[in-house]
Q: What sequence folds into this?
């Protein structure tokens, strides 16, 4: 049986929603307990919901017993600090799996495309049930920063770049896209990430917030893109040689799935 998916994501794999109200005090995300976790750059995560209600960022299939990334357990100590963020995640009406705040340090375009990755959202997810996608809400005001999406990891011609001012909200099939953020700020970037289960509830949420399959695309200088591509391949070759020296064969080396 096919998975239940949101038709709003059929065209591009993402939708941009109406901007969220900026009515959450920054203390909610600043005071959470963060843990280091590898992602698209130098990052930490503050989980609000996890596999068993602990301050843990691991995929649910990485636990014992393993299961798909659905039905997350809210972490009381974290939710007590950030009740508004929990309400944001629950507002979709869809099932919530992992839910967390990401803290990303400033990086470069080359850093971002080197760290492009696809998420592993649907491991162990039974066919005939809702496909897991991710909702993003930019909490800090990072209007110069860009969410980078590529259909082909190595082809900048397939790249979409979405600006991230405060309140930017998206729903993305991050298992379809190679994605990362180029954070051009001078302070850390914060965003709320919720794993949502596709179905009529999520469809309704997207429609009520006027989900658009296309938005503002930011152009970049050709030489910046070319330099980034060159640095991407230099780093991949460096990593390949390092892994070969350790007895591994990876060609090309794959980034971590999150």
A:
């Amino acid at each position: 049986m096919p998975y239940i998916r949101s038709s709003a994501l059929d065209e591009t794999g993402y939708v941009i929603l109406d901007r969220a109200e900026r009515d959450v005090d920054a203390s909610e995300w600043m005071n959470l307990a963060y843990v280091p976790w590898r992602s698209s750059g130098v990052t930490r995560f503050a989980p609000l919901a996890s596999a068993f209600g602990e301050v843990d960022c691991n995929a649910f299939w990485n636990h014992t017993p393993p299961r798909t990334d659905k039905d997350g357990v809210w972490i009381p100590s974290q939710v007590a600090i950030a009740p508004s963020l929990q309400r944001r995640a629950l507002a979709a009406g869809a099932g919530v799996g992992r839910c967390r705040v990401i803290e990303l340090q400033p990086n470069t375009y080359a850093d971002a495309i080197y760290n492009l990755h696809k998420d592993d959202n649907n491991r162990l997810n039974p066919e005939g049930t809702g496909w897991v996608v991710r909702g993003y809400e930019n909490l800090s005001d990072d209007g110069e920063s860009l969410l980078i999406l590529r259909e082909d990891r190595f082809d900048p011609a397939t790249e979409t770049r979405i600006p991230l001012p405060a309140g930017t909200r998206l729903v993305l099939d991050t298992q379809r896209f190679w994605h990362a953020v180029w954070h051009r700020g001078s302070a850390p970037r914060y965003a709320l990430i919720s794993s949502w289960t596709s179905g009529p509830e999520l469809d309704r949420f997207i429609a009520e917030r006027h989900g658009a399959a296309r938005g503002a695309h930011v152009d970049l200088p050709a030489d910046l893109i070319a330099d980034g591509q060159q640095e991407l391949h230099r780093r991949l070759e460096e990593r390949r040689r390092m892994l070969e020296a350790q007895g591994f064969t990876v060609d090309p080396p794959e980034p971590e799935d999150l």
